[in-house]
Amino acid sequence: MIYNCDLPCSFFLSLLSVLGSSVVFIQQPHDLVVVAGQPVTLPCSITGYHGTVLWVKDGLALGVNRDMSGYPRYDVIGDHSKGEYHLLIQRTELTDDGSFECQAIQAATRSRPARLTVLVPPDDPVIIGAPVVSLRAGDSLNLTCHAENAKPAASIIWIRNGEVLNGAAYTKTLLRDGRRESTVSTLHISSSNIETGQQITCRASNKAAPNGKEATVTIDIQHFPLVNLSVEPQPVLEGNLVKFHCAAKANPPVTHYRWAKGGNMITDATGDTYEVLVDHSFFTEPVSCEVTNALGSTNISRNVDVYFGPRLAAEPQSLQVDRGSDAVFSCAWIGNPSLTIVWMKRGHGVVLSNENTLTLKGVRQEDAGKYVCRAVVPRVGVGEKEVMLTVNGPPSISSTQTQQALYGEKGQIKCFIRSTPPPDRIAWSWKETVLESGTSGRYTVETVSTEDGVISTLTMSNIVPADFQTIYNCTAWNSFGSDTEIIRLKEQGNNQFTPHPKQPNCAELSYSKRSAPDRDYAHLRSVSGCLMIPAVLCSPQGLCAWPSSLGLQWELSWLSSSSLGPWGLSAALDCRGVSELIVSTETETQRRLAPHVH
Ligand SMILES: *[C@@H]1O[C@H](CO)[C@@H](O)[C@H](O)[C@H]1NC(C)=O
Ligand SMILES: *[C@@H]1O[C@H](CO)[C@@H](O)[C@H](O)[C@H]1NC(C)=O
Ligand SMILES: *[C@@H]1O[C@H](CO)[C@@H](O)[C@H](O)[C@H]1NC(C)=O
Ligand SMILES: *[C@@H]1O[C@H](CO)[C@@H](O)[C@H](O)[C@H]1NC(C)=O
Questions:
Q1: Is the Cβ atom of 302 under 6 angstroms away from ligand 3?
Q2: Where does the record locate the signal sequence feature (predicted)?
Q3: How far, in Å, is the centroid of ligand 2 from the Cα of 137?
Q4: Cβ-contact 343, 332 below 8 angstroms
């Protein structure tokens, strides 16, 4: 039963208060504060009254006497005979919040109004993103904590490592019920003031929850992989094993590794290490390691300090230049550690340059030849490259100016010509004859090219004494000019060394020449182990010679009676144990193997 107590009721009550002046409130309800869920008792004791007692909340009658049937959590308790009508509210709710009055209806008297304030603790606070808030390295962080449905509004503080963090901004929102409020607090933390793994707590409290309620987040700072690429050992000699180690720190964790060298993927390395036998290419082509996590990849690369011997980077080229102009050679090597370059001419020990280039100014024909560009990496290796310098110029003839032939036999005179460009023409001339090639009478000219030059050979058959008396002019021409060599032909002595017909263990030496000796006497010398058997030696023509010394070295001389006609001599020699005999005259030296001696 609810009494609506608007205007007619208050009129009725004020009438009662006039009538029941003896009714007294021993206990009246007073202002109370209760936390929602707790019971609360509003006291009311009236003496000298036996009428109806009515509890009114915010002007609305709740029930008469003990009848609170409309409010299951409300009871009127106490000893009624003593006038006790306490209002017990079980498990208070927010709706209980209000102003209460206890009224003695028939006495027309009422208690003073008592304010019942119901407090509500906030719901458990919630940090958006909890339990783990991830952010990227370098980003600042805004943390938001909600503490809802509190009365009065919760206040929020932020705590890290036991210290309160200041500077949070908050807003409060009144709920539809007009009583509770929600609080939102936002905390800004700069990137420099935050570390991964830190825990930050939001504590929400109000009078209903003075100790507060907490929520905590863990900070997780994510970053690209941080990578160190180590190379062991260094420096290292080419051909040895090197280990690359890609040490990475990453959050979130590394998903994979990739390796490359000089832009080419290394497919057989998929982990954080790569082992390989290094060669020179590791010096110039960096090895890179790319480490990837969910955020992205980091790629770093390293060159290896590989020691290696010189390798040709630019090959020197052989040159053909005109006499008088400059010749410039260049070669380039790479090597590690640093190398030195030396240019030399083959066969000459002189260092011509220590640069990549060798410049020869105003070359002469003597400069032609092989040049060597040599590179040295100390204690590691040596490299060498040879080039050729060819100097264009007139021919150059180098031949023995006196050549020999045997009387009556076939003889040859050779003319050796160096010429770049090759000779256009080679001519032999003697007396009135000029012959370039082919055969004319007893004479034939043949020309052969060799690596070093051209050899022109004048061959004459059946040599006569007149052949020894003339000069032979060998001339070669090319576009730069000509060169001439005058060659003489000398008769070669015919020397024989045979076992002596009569004396065992002895040999007989005979020496003869058809043309006259140059002077009117000649020497015949030998350095050998042969013993001259003392005798007067005579030539077949009756010229006699006397040994002028005896022993291991001997010398014969004779006088010639005539400068015409053949001449010669023979000697008996004891040549036991001698394998070779060297016979020399003033104009020639001949070697003969010793004949078999018994
Ligand atoms: C944090 O809040 C501030 C102020 O509202 C804003 O300027 C900033 O962009 C926010 N930062 C992040 C990381 O959300
Ligand atoms: C890289 O090396 C530096 C210096 O040795 C070290 O401080 C750092 O922690 C290393 N980083 C990684 C990812 O290993
Ligand atoms: C790392 O970067 C270099 C240069 O951009 C590239 O050549 C190489 O292939 C990359 N490494 C990997 C493993 O992708
Ligand atoms: C050799 O022959 C050449 C060409 O025929 C000639 O010009 C030159 O004068 C000759 N030299 C001698 C010394 O006879």
A1: no
A2: 1-20
A3: 17
A4: no
Ligand 4 geometric centre to CA of 517 (Å)? 29
471 lines ligand 4 (CB under 6 A): no
pLDDT for res 119: 94
Q: How far is the CA of 122 from the centre of ligand 1 (A)?
A: 26
Give the residue, 338 or 559, on which the prediction is more confident: 338
User: If you take atom 14 of ligand 1, which residue's CA is the nearest one?
Assistant: 142
Residue 592 has a pLDDT of: 64
Candidates 133, 134, 139, 142: which one to mutate for ligand 1, based on the most atoms within 8 Å of Cβ? Answer: 142
Residue nearest to atom 9 of ligand 4 (CA): 484
Q: Own/partner pairs for 362-370, CB < 8 Å, 24+ apart?
A: 362/324, 362/325, 362/326, 363/321, 363/323, 363/324, 363/325, 363/326, 363/327, 363/389, 363/391, 364/323, 364/324, 364/391, 365/323, 365/391, 365/393, 365/396, 367/327, 367/391, 368/420, 369/345, 370/345, 370/346
Confidence of residue 577 (pLDDT cuts 50, 70, 90): low
Q: Whose CA is nearest to atom 14 of ligand 4?
A: 473
Q: Domains in the chain and their CATH numbers? A: 7-119 (2.60.40.10), 126-221 (2.60.40.10), 233-304 (2.60.40.10), 309-392 (2.60.40.10), 396-491 (2.60.40.10), 494-593 (2.60.40.740)
Q: What is the pTM of this model?
A: 0.59
**Which pLDDT score is estimated for 447?**
95
Instruction: Report pLDDT for 562.
Output: 45
DSSP 133-157: EEEETT--EEEEEEEEEEBSPPEEE
Q: Is the CB of 484 under 6 A from ligand 4?
A: yes
Ligand nearest to the CA of 274: 3
CA-nearest residue for atom 6, ligand 1, is 142
Cα distances (angstroms) measured from residue 241 to each of 24, 232, 244, 246, 527: 108, 9, 10, 16, 66
**pLDDT confidence of residue 491:** 84
- Whether 291 is in the pocket of ligand 2, judged by its Cβ within 6 Å, is no
Distance in Å, CA 229 to ligand 2 centroid = 9
Mean pLDDT of 381-386: 95
Q: Contact 64/52 with Cβ under 8 angstroms? A: yes
pLDDT digits (tens, 9 = 90+) for 114-164: 999 999 999 999 999 989 999 999 999 999 999 999 999 999 999 999 999
Residue ID of nearest Cα to ligand 1 atom 1: 142
Q: Which residues have CB under 8 Å from 166's CB, separation 6+?
A: none
Atom of ligand 2 nearest to the CA of 249: 13
Q: How buried is residue 273: exposed, middle or buried, by Cβ count under 10 Å (0-12/13-18/19+)?
A: middle
- CA–centroid distance, 398 to ligand 1, in Å, is 97
Nearest residue (CA) to ligand 2, atom 4: 228
